[in-house]
Every structure is written in structure tokens, then in C-alpha cells.
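COMPLEX REQUEST
Ligand: 3-acetylpyridine adenine dinucleotide
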Amino acid sequence: MAEATVRGFDAVVVGAGFGGLYALWRLRGLGMSVRVYEGGSGVGGTWFWNRYPGARCDVESLAYSYSFSPELEQEWVWTERYASQPEILRYANHVADRFDLRRDIQLNTRIESAIFDEQSGRWNVRADDGTGVSAQYCIMATGCLSSRNTPDFPGLETFRGAHHHTGSWPAEGVDLEGKRVGIIGTGSSAIQAIPIIAEQAEHLHVFQRTPNYSIPARNGPLDPGFQEKVKADYEAFRQPFLGGMFGLDFSPHDRLAMDATPGERREMYERRWAEGGLALIGSFADLLSSQEANDTAAEFIRGKIREIVDDPEVAEKLLPDSPVACKRPCADTGYFETYNRPDVTLVDISDTPIDEITPAGVRVGDREYELDTIVFATGFDAMTGSLMRIDIRGRAGLTLAEKWSGGPRTYLGLCTVGFPNLFTITGPGSPSVLANMIPAIEQHVDWIADCFMHMRERGLSVIEATREAEDAWVDHVNERADRTLYPSCNSWYVGANIPGKPRVFMPYLGFPAYVERCEEVVAREYEGFELSA
Ligand code: N01
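STATUS: Structure written out below.
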């Protein structure tokens, strides 16, 4: 890039989802010059791209929202217990307008490289439109679930019909009326989409490799009286969420499942099943650490699936056998009921995988399923994928891909050694996907903004984690995970959904403990970091 044309900023932020929007607002408030780059044609990140039928958040709307502006909290009115994708996207756009953020956001622009210049101590960031900027700080707000995974099925290019990934659903929608549709995958996205697609399609085939646990969401209109009550003291409403293991108010029960009688356990599970949503996994304190305890919840949910699904053979195929919540649990509206429809067929591909996509459809063994549309609900290269597709180079030209070839290594999920002044919002090694994302984002951005202020006040310009602190943090993240059932499953938390990806448990377990640790690091003058002029 020609030096004369390079514009300089205090900070470049990659991504205009909830992380990037808040980072822009906070850093602008410090008087910093900030440029945000966004690959999409609008703001909203995850909620911009994931427009598949039925997409909605499974964290309750009143909690899945920013807390940084009391005015925003008061004026925004949520309409449902769980907000739909269009409503959340409207909220993101409202935030962008209300805080006049758009003037510093460049849309339709993907960042291709971010290269640290050791001489100037700045990041040179280059976009796919050929332009480049330099910045003192580079903040990756690239999202945990934004690098789509479309498995490499042979023959996809020969398919005569249309195919769409749930994570890049066309904004104008897809007409599935009267179509023969096949959906591949039964994760959270599919579980939300299947009941809606079934209503539209002439026939829906669901290609299931692994059955999943799902709990009824019991979504519905939000009671205006309740919303008003929350708004009367929003902070008090948020407090129990912030203290919960996942940044969610599961009102965690101190009691161990195995200390309860079978009748008491059943009563608890029934109550939480009736209340709906993911709180069932907080029914007892040991559900995620004791196999015996987890089995009781697993058997309860399997019992519900057997009750809901009419055909016992179909029900049997839908029964998960891994620990509950070891893979991301799902919340649904009428998911298992959908298999009672005559126009929905479950295709179990656990033993016989999809062989190929043919011009007419999908071939599994010697059976070809003729389809007009294929929906890939096949997930994401989670947590690291969106970072890996950018050519990020730190000291001595080391690439992030090289450094993380054995799995991501960070200090606090915020920084990685060898890449000074580079920050990740909800990066690997932070609670991220195991926390309510918006409070997790706010906590990260606030920590980073406070750090910038601290540095400015002391005339410092470079921050980098130390090797010892990073090594200790990586060990600590693993130790916490190893005390639970999480690492035992082939989930995207461990990268198992992406062939060849190193098997490392990526998120940090325990939102409140994490926040405490971050505060301790600051109180000890940025323990584990080297700060210099
Ligand atoms: O993706 P997934 P997702 N052949 O990875 C299958 C969040 N989210 O988009 O389990 C056949 O969970 C794969 O099978 P298997 C949430 O955190 C939240 O649904 O690997 N099948 C699986 O069934 C969630 O966890 C919300 O055997 C293949 C599916 O595709 C995360 O996003 C809503 C395959 C992928 O499931 C990702 O969810 C939506 C292959 N080659 C998403 N490859 C809410 O807030 C993959 N699969 C409600």
C-alpha cells in the first residue's frame, strides 16, 4: 500500500455485530479515532446473516440486550419472551442510528490482512477493496459463530436445485412453498428451522447424523406489565444473570441431583420443562460434572421425546445418547412434534453418511432423495474460523494460523503473545459462547477501553501478554473444562465438527469467575501483561 494514502486511526475494529458496535461507541467516547469494517451490507453480525426461517435467540430478550445505556434500556420495547432474528436485527440497527455509529462503519468490506509493523508499533490493516489503514490497536470483533461450515460433499456443484446455508440465508427469503426440501444437520439452527420449513414445503427430509437434546422454548408475547416492572429496576433484573455460571439466570440449584430422590428430580425436571428454555440444565448443581447426575436429566428428556413422537421407530432415532448440554443444548417450538407430520421424513445418516449430492438430490447408500432445495444447517468453524480466514501477522512475521496450529492460545481470551495491541472480543479462552453474549461483549469491551485509558494516562502505547501468563491461562481453561463432562463430546466447543481442527476446548467455563479474574488482573497493575511506551 502506498504510504501516502494510508490513513491512520487509533483503533480499527473488524466486525459490526454487537461487539463491534459497542467497541466503536466506547472507544469514540474516549476521544479515539476508530474505523469499523464490516463484510455484510448492514450491521448486526450473526443476526444480519442468520435469517433462516424460525431464527431467534434462546436467551430471553430482556436479558439479551445492551446494558450500557439506561436510556436505550428504557426506550426499546421487546415484543416476545425470545426475540426473533428480525427483531434483534432491528435492535442492532436502532443502536447504530441512535448512537450515530454508521459514520465510522465501512460496510461491504472484508478485512484480508492485519500485519503488525514492529518499527512503527502499528497494525497495517488491508481490506478486500484494496484500501488499507494503519492503527495503534486492532480489535477483532469477528464473532464466534460467523465462519460457515459447508461440508465438502462431492457433487454439490452438479445439483440442479437451490441450496442455502442457514448462516447466509438470502435477505429476500426463500420460497419453499410446494418444494421438496432436504435439510442437513440437527443443531440449534435446524431445530428452529425444521418446524417452519415443514409448514411450507411439500415434503421435508431431515438428514440427521447426531440426534440432539431440545427443550420447548415456550416462547410467547412478552407481558407489558412484566417488561415495565423490569424497566423500573433493570439493574436488579440483570444482577442474577451476571452471577450465573453462564451469565444466565438459571437460578442454579445448590442441590446435587444424586442427593434428591427420583421423585424430587422428576418434579424439578417437569417444572423446568414446563417453564421452558435452557434453565433445565441448571436444575441441579452437578448436571454438567457428574455422569450419573447427567444421566437422570438425559433420561427425562428422552422420555419426553418418546411421549411426543408418535412413531416409536422415529422416536428411537431421535434419542440422543451423549450427556445433556455437552453439545450446545437447543430450545425449540414444536420440533419433535414436527416428526408426526406425514410430510416430514427423518433420514438417519449416523451409520450410512451422505455419499454425494447428485443433480437431482442427495444420495445416501443406494437411495437417492429427490429434492428441489437443500438447506445446509451444518454449523460453523466456531471461535477461531473467522480469525483464521484473515492473514494476521504479529512480531517477526509470525502468523496467527501458525501460532494456533495446535489450537488457540490466549491470555484471558483477550490477547495472544506475539501480537501486541491486538484484542479479540469474546475470543477463545473467554466465556464467550458459554455466556450470554451481549453482557460478555460489554465486559470485554469495557476491559479493553479501561486498559486504553490506563495506558494513555501513563504515556504507554504497547500492551502484550507474557508467555508465562498465557501458558498458565491455557492450563487453567483446560483444568476447568476437565472437571466437567464438556470435553467428552464431539462438539464444536472442541472443534470436532471441522475435519482436521485441533481438539481443544475453546471457551472458558464460568462467567462470574472470569469477570473476577479480569478485575484482579487490573487491580494488580495488569498482571500478566507487559506495558511499554
Ligand atoms: O450448527 P451445529 P448450528 N454430514 O454445529 C450436522 C448457536 N445458535 O448452526 O452433530 C451430516 O450446532 C451436525 O451433525 P453432528 C448455538 O450456539 C444459537 O445449528 O456434527 N451432518 C449438526 O447436527 C449453536 O450451537 C441459536 O454429527 C453434518 C449440524 O450439522 C451454534 O449457533 C440458534 C455434517 C450442525 O449443528 C451452531 O448451531 C442457532 C456432515 N458432513 C444457532 N456436518 C439460538 O440462540 C455437520 N453436520 C437459538
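REMARKS: The first strand starts at residue 7 and ends at 14. The first helix runs from residue 18 to 29.
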